[in-house]
């Protein structure tokens, strides 16, 4: 079995999977991301990218805003000062919760990029302002320039790779988790369904890179809770610890996909590259 994970950061999960698979091999070959986005081990580049990365033709999705526009806005913000909010392409939340989230964002005073989707019961995204955002919210964001609202799918990789991005409010889907951790960005969790609550629990309790804001769409949510969690992750000592933990994980993820020559002149390969090699050797030996 091939899985989009990394040996060094998913020890417990991979052990459980291997026990379940019994004698069948499990190869963690993640992260499934372009290699130039990763922090490349002992001798690699540790700098973040502040430019467009992924052509729209490769994503299969229609951008709600161009990557260039997002990058231009982010370039005007301070390092690690922006919160990115996206609850995934398959998820929506109720209108009351979306309004509380918006009010909490505004109360926090933080700069943010928010990938908006119509709330449940609404299909026309052009009518979202009056129906499921607080009155005057969009106008205030346009004036203060603190909120960058994307009314469709946002270029997530570009945003997470930018040095101005300091945290990610996410549904904790595994692809989003991998992208965020590969860039050393801590997470505010709002898991909604499927395996997402388990991911959020692991991120918070085992990795120390997440604070959970809510769970599912049934959780009671108020704007003060949103404000409190944002400040905890972006302003407090705990937030600094989360960011440090996320940076360590990013380095482990990058090292897993790195090949280099060590000081003794020996060629070294990261764990995910070794898994790929082992997988290829296994399938070719059975021909």
Can you give a write-up of this model?
- This protein is an alpha/beta fold and about 290 residues long.
- The two termini are about 20 Å apart.
- It has helices at about 10-20, 55-60, 65-75, 95-110, 130, 135-145, 155-160, 175-180, 195-205, 225-235, 235-255, 270-285, and strands spanning about 1-5, 25-30, 80-85, 110-115, 145-150, 165-170, 185-190, 210, 260, 265-270.
- The chain contains 12 helices and 10 strands.
- The model is unreliable at about 40-45 and about 55-60 (pLDDT under 50).
- It folds into 2 domains: about 1-30, no CATH class; about 80-260, Rossmann fold.
- The strands form 3 sheets. The chain has a 6-stranded parallel β-sheet with strand order 5-4-3-6-7-8, with helices on both faces. The chain has a two-stranded parallel ribbon with strand order 1-2. The chain has a two-stranded antiparallel sheet with strand order 9-10.
- About 40% of the residues are buried.
Structural class: alpha/beta
Please state the CA-atom Rg, rounded to the nearest Å: 20 Å
User: Which spans have pLDDT < 50 for at least 5 consecutive residues?
Assistant: 41-47, 55-60
CATH superfamily of the largest domain: Glycogen Phosphorylase B
Family: Belongs to the UDP-glycosyltransferase family.
Pfam families: UDPGT (PF00201)
Keywords: Glycosyltransferase, Transferase
GO molecular function, one term: UDP-glucosyltransferase activity
